[in-house]
Structure formats: C-alpha cells, structure tokens
Amino acid sequence: MRAALDALGIVPKKGMGQSFLIDPFVADAEAALVATAPGRPVVEIGGGLGVLTEALARRDLGPLTVIERDARLARFLRARFAPTVRVLVADARDVPLPEADAVVGNLPYSAATPILLRLFALRVPRIVVLLQREVAERLAAGPGSKEYGRLALIARLFGTVELYRTVPPDRFWPVPEVESRLLVHTARAGALPVPSVPEFERAVRVLFSSRRKQLGNLLPRLAGSREAADALADRAGWPHDWRRQRPEALPPEAFFALARARASGR
Q: What pLDDT does 14 receive?
C-alpha cells in the first residue's frame, strides 16, 4: 500500500493532521463495534489509506459512504473500492451527511472535537471513532475526575459513551506523538433532557470556566445574583451543600435539571 501511494506521489499532509491507521487488526476491532442491522447505511469519516474501509467492506453492512477531505486519497480509495463504496471529497465538519445508522472513523486529532459535536447534534444512532486518548477519556469522564467537564456533559446529553482499547502510536503512519483510543457513542432515545441545547452549552461553559472555584461563586455568574442562584439551585433540586462543591462533583443529571429550572423560571 505504501508503495502504491509513493507511486501516486501521495505523502501525508502535516497541515491536515494526517496520520493514517496501518494496522488491520485495529481496523477489524473498530469495524466490529459498528454493530448495525444488516443493510443499514454506514458512513466512514476520513478514509485515509483504506485500512478501515476494507474492514467495513468485508462485513455484512449496508451501503458504505466514505467522506475524505483529501482529493488525492479520495481518488486512491475510488480506484481501490469502486463500485461497492461511495467516496465523497468533502470536509466532515460541514458537508451534509448522508443518512446513516452508524458513523465510524479514525478522526484527525485537530478536527475530532468539532466533528463529534456535530455528530452528537445530528443524533447519529451509533458513533464509533478512534481518536486521541486524552480526548476520548475526557468525553467518557464521570463526576469527580479531573477530565470531567463540558465535553463529557454534552456527550451524556446526547447519549452514552463507552471506551474500548487503547491503540499505541506505532499503529499509524506517520507515527503520532500520542496514544489513541476507541470510543463508542450511542444516541439517546426520545427527547433530550434539556429544553435548549445552546442554553445548556452556555451554562456549562460558564460553570466550568474556573474549575477551582466553588459553585457558590460560579452559579451567581449564570443566574445574575446570589439570591437568583439560590432560587435556581432550589428549583433544580441541587444538594443543600451545593455552594461548597465544585462543578466536577455534580452528575450530568444535576446540570440537566439546572437547564430545565432555568427555562421554567423565565
């Protein structure tokens, strides 16, 4: 494969954050997590050298569409997998996504967070991604951990997160400086637990703006005054000692309840 790319004059572009998965066993493990019903459409983000594409194509899945930002790699993938795989030259951060029961991919580290936030908001039923280990663990973090914050709360707002194997740097080419980790996000069924996602995101951003401060100092920034903060926390059913707690101590449900209390108090 490397020889074929060399012959085509394809070399990784540092400016695009390209570091390609080259281990077929990791690709098989990732493809196995897709777990959609047979015949249902799947989208892969960032086809790269086609290692994951090949693993997906071998499985009993539905129509497979690959979104690849690099036109050189898109031509390589079309030549390799046509006509069974559809390849789009586009940026997954803004292209209209085809209908899919699952989105899977090895996300470039520089674009992973905006892509995931977009996929969450689109309510993609199942997301299977390989991304920088620190980002994956931040998304899966629970209350009380130093990684717990805005990303974890937004991920929980839209569904559930599971972490799988850690992948060492030498499974990629060029070799990155960080480890990667497999993450699966399953979308929440039914309505979201907050009335307004933008308002929820704003509230979380304010409350986690100073992680060392206690909520007694942070919530008034959101509510407008200490009296309004007390009333808001009471409507949300927060624990009696909330003023002395830091944001990372409260579970996602407490922040969901706060968002509902803010909406009902207007």
A: 62
What digits encode the pLDDT tens for the residues 26-51? 999 999 999 898 899 999 999 999 99
> What's the pLDDT tens digit per position in 122-155?
999 999 999 999 999 999 999 999 999 999 999 9
How many alpha carbons lie under 13 Å from residue 35 in its C-beta half-sphere? 10
Which tens digits make up the pLDDT trace of 178-191?
Answer: 999 999 999 999 99
| H runs (alpha helix) in the chain | 2-7, 24-32, 51-57, 71-81, 112-121, 133-140, 150-158, 197-207, 215-223, 226-236, 252-264
What angle do the packed helices 197-207 and 215-223 form, to 10 degrees? 140
Does 103 lie in the same domain as 134?
A: yes
d(CA 257, CA 72): 48
Cα separations in angstroms, 113 against 49, 129, 187, 236: 22, 11, 17, 29
Domain that holds residue 170: 2-187
Task: Find the CATH number of the domain harbouring 252.
Answer: 1.10.8.100
Same domain, yes or no: 241 and 127: no
CATH at residue 38: 3.40.50.150
Instruction: Supply the pLDDT for residue 6.
Output: 61
